[in-house]
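Here comes just one.
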Amino acid sequence: MARPAANTSISLAQLEKLVSARRKQLNKLNKVRGKLLKKLADVDRDIFEISGGAAAGGSVGGPRRGPGSRVKNATSLQDLLVAILGKAGGPMGVGDITDKALASGYKTNSANFRGIVNQTLIKDKRFVSPERSFYKLK
């Protein structure tokens, strides 16, 4: 719907008609959006199921699927972080540590795995932080 020129004056009735038309258009677009979001959720669910419970592009994220849905790993996160930092030989950033953990095959359902790694590094006494967001073995 075209807008009237800025220098023209329109009546209140015309303005109300324009607002009403915009509201109708907005309602239609919201219905289309809702249908598309439902289709997208269905596609996401199919991707999750086909990938064996892992989200597309990696093992992070995905909906929880009731009791027993927690991912099992061969080693604990703490032991994996010790191995990663042991091989590094020097301080590493939290983002790099997180990337290496996921690249090593560590599985997680966490939407914020980087935060989990960061908290683990802070709490475990085997790690020290020589500078902000960097960690190394003690």
